[in-house]
Amino acid sequence: MKNFKLGFVILASTGLLFLGACSGGSQENASTDKTETTNTAANTSKTGTAKSGESSQEDDDKKGHSEKHEEGKEHSHGGQVVETGKYHLEFVAEKEDKGTHLDLYLETGDKHETVPNAKVTADIQSPDGKQTTIPLTYDAEGKYYKGEISNKATGPYQVRINAEVGGEKLNGRFSFNQ
Predict the structure, then answer these.
(1) pLDDT tens digit string along 75-95?
(2) Is 79 exposed, middle or buried (0-12, 13-18, 19+ CB in 10 A)?
């Protein structure tokens, strides 16, 4: 009887090992890809959380979102993306000698048309806990909003982008390491 139980345990364990090896699938963490939308009576406020890296691209592909429009130009600028309502926010932070250059691509619609008339600010929390608000100005030539921080503290930075487009308020949350 002991041999029978021992044989059964070995067989069951082996079966579980093979089952685990065969599944080999990847698990996705949906909690980092949540997009929240909040409506108020006076105005509309939309908040999104950034998707970064390859998981963002995979999620967009799963939703049937094309990264190219009719002329074949790519929309991606290599940054973190938040899709909130009809708006597409893409945040790019690039470290430079004198600080960090911040770029925000604010686009709308299926064709990702640039929104040049927004009022945009970035609320930044640096790794040392300091809070800073930086206005982002529109660069008509590059079709993006830009700003710069001079803080050289190393570690994770948290960024909240606040944009107002024709009375509609948008918020996007991003992060980067320096």
Answers:
(1) 577 899 998 889 999 999 999
(2) buried
Q: What would the pLDDT profile of 53-74 be if each residue is shown by its tens digit?
A: 433 333 443 333 333 333 334 4
Block residue for tokens 């799963």: 62
Distance of alpha carbon 136 from alpha carbon 134, whole angstroms: 6
Quote the tokens at residue 150: 């001079």
In degrees and rounded to multiples of 5, residue 123 shows phi and psi of -90, 120
Can you give the pTM of this predicted structure? Answer: 0.60
Q: Identify the H or E element spanning 82.
A: strand 80-84
Q: Is 128 helix (H, G, I), strand (E, B) or coil?
A: coil
Q: Which of 30, 60, 34 is nearest to 48 (CA)?
A: 34
Helix, strand, coil tally for the chain in percent (to 5):
20, 45, 35
How are beta strands 44-49 and 168-177 bridged, if at all?
Answer: parallel
- Write down all domains in the chain, each with its CATH number in brackets: 37-177 (2.60.40.10)
Pairing of strands 113-114, 119-125: unpaired
What's the alpha-carbon Rg for the chain, to the nearest Å? 22
Section 134-142 average pLDDT: 96
Give 51's DSSP letter.
B
- For residue 20, which phi and psi values (nearest 5 degrees)? -65, -40
Q: Distance (Å, rounded) from C-alpha 144 to C-alpha 101? A: 12
